[in-house]
Specification:
By secondary structure, the protein is α+β, with helices and mostly antiparallel strands. It has three helices and seven strands. About 30% of the residues lie in helices and about 25% in strands. Pfam families: YjgF_endoribonc. InterPro entries: Endoribo_LPSP/chorism_mut-like, RutC-like_sf.
Length: about 160
């Protein structure tokens, strides 16, 4: 395995985008002591929303996992921006909360959430093992299929 977070991203073929500006009256990240909290990130790719609709009707689990991974990529972009461009300041990923826009009968939110969780462990190594909530919701902003927020410990 590569030595640094940046090397792991490169090995995974991932280039972090520029951190997106907030879309409303909030800030993208907040730091309190050694805790960094991100606002929810949508599955944006190349400046556009990549996955829309509800899991269980419009979106299958595999596509939902891809959406969750894209959200996680955007979470890391926000963390990088908040940490002055230095991802090595991440001590540990404490928790991910994954919101999944779901049909009422859909109950595989945890499988969708694995798209974000697996990516974070791949990129952060043991420091990426985290607590998690996977929550089914009726709708998300802009009809996004998934939204992810994260809490990090700053080293």
């Amino acid at each position: 395995m590569a030595d640094t977070i940046e090397q792991r991203l490169s090995a995974a073929g991932v280039t972090l985008p520029e951190a997106a500006a907030p879309a409303a009256n909030y800030i993208a990240t907040i730091t309190y002591g050694s805790i960094l909290q991100t606002s929810g990130q949508l599955p944006m790719e190349n400046g556009a929303l990549a996955v829309t609709g509800k899991l269980g009707t419009d979106v299958d689990v595999e596509t939902g996992q891809r959406a969750a991974k894209l959200c996680a990529i955007n979470v890391l972009a926000q963390a990088k921006s908040a940490l002055g461009g230095d991802l090595s300041k991440i001590g540990r990923l404490l928790k991910l909360t994954i919101f999944v826009s779901s049909d009422p009968a859909f109950t595989d939110q945890h499988k969708v959430a694995n798209g974000a969780s697996d990516f974070m462990v791949e990129i952060l190594g043991d420091a990426g093992r985290h607590a998690r909530s996977a929550v089914g919701v009726q709708a998300l902003p802009m009809n996004a299929a998934v939204e992810v927020e994260a809490t990090f410990e700053i080293a």
